[in-house]
């Protein structure tokens, strides 16, 4: 009986779709999109990617997550979708925004697939930090500016102790914060409390690499005034450090179109 089950069990491909620009996906992902029976998509995947490259008969399910949003799909439900469709013999593509290795809950999904005995493949993508920094003309590391970069989340579930904040405040590394734009003033206040230089440059990049990209530059001490009443669209990325000063000189990408390429949340049951 177990051999029969193994013969009909499908496969899951977990892939990063990049930060938003359709042309930034990999050749391998394009091939897997054309092969997939079922595509389970994050909210922060440009829907044009599936429109262009998925099979017309593929089942596309949106399983969005968004901070502060009650419509977010539970990770346990996503795991069940992956396992259930694969056990029905389907080729399943799990499509995530950015890269699968950065803040994507990939571990939960891998554990579920492993426990169910389902084979999988992982395809990397361009993470939001790389896409945002490139399209904003802000190198994440640069001689004379920063020798290293750190990637950090800052949302209601992120808790860091005093020593960690002191270490970040005293570091010359470029600090890239995911999920931080909603509480930017609080982030700046923490850095100032732990003696980060007040005039340290800060950039907020909205919808990076898309035609809706917007780049806002300020300093830690000026955030409160510069961004008073501003509601940044999702996704937005925050870059803190001296490298942000390079934006004015090397900003090459012209965008600013109103709207968004990303879907609204829909709960899948």
TrEMBL record:
Mind telling me which Pfam families this protein's record contains? TP_methylase
Judging by the UniProt lineage, the source's domain of life is Bacteria
**This protein's UniProt keywords:** Methyltransferase, Porphyrin biosynthesis, S-adenosyl-L-methionine, Transferase
Q: What is its EC number?
A: 2.1.1.107
InterPro entries linked to this entry: 4pyrrol_Mease, 4pyrrol_Methylase_sf, 4pyrrole_Mease_sub1, 4pyrrole_Mease_sub2, CobA/CysG_C, Siro_Cobalamin_biosynth, Uropor_MeTrfase_CS
Residues in coiled coil:
none
Question: Which pathway is it part of?
Answer: Porphyrin-containing compound metabolism; siroheme biosynthesis; precorrin-2 from uroporphyrinogen III: step 1/1
Under Gene Ontology molecular function, one entry of this record is: uroporphyrin-III C-methyltransferase activity
Q: What biological process terms from GO does the record include?
A: methylation; siroheme biosynthetic process
Residues annotated as domain Tetrapyrrole methylase: 11-222
Family per record:
Belongs to the precorrin methyltransferase family.
* Protein name as it appears in the record: uroporphyrinogen-III C-methyltransferase
């Amino acid at each position: 009986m177990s051999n029969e089950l193994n013969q009909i069990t499908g496969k899951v491909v977990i892939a990063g779709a990049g930060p938003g620009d359709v042309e930034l996906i990999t050749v391998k992902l394009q091939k897997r999109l054309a092969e997939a029976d079922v595509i389970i998509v994050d909210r922060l995947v440009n829907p044009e990617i599936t429109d262009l490259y998925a099979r017309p008969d593929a089942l596309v399910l949106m399983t969005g997550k968004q901070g502060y949003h009650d419509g977010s799909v539970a990770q346990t439900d996503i795991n069940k979708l992956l396992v259930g469709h694969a056990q029905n013999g389907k080729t399943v593509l799990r499509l995530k925004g950015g890269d699968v290795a950065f803040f994507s809950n990939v571990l939960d999904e891998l554990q579920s697939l492993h426990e169910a005995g389902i084979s999988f493949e992982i395809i990397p993508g361009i993470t939001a930090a790389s896409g945002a920094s490139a399209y904003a003309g802000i190198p994440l590391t640069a001689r004379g500016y920063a020798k290293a970069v750190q990637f950090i989340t800052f949302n209601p579930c992120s808790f860091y102790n005093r020593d960690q904040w002191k270490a970040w405040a005293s570091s010359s590394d470029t600090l890239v914060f995911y999920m931080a734009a909603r509480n930017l003033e609080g982030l700046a206040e923490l850095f100032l409390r732990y003696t980060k230089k007040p005039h340290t440059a800060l950039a907020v990049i909205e919808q990076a690499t898309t035609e809706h990209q917007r780049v806002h530059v300020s300093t830690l001490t000026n955030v409160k005034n510069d961004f008073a009443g501003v509601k940044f669209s999702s996704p937005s990325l925050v870059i803190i450090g001296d490298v942000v000063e390079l934006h004015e000189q090397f900003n090459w990408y012209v965008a600013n179109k109103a709207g968004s390429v990303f879907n609204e949340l829909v709960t899948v049951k």
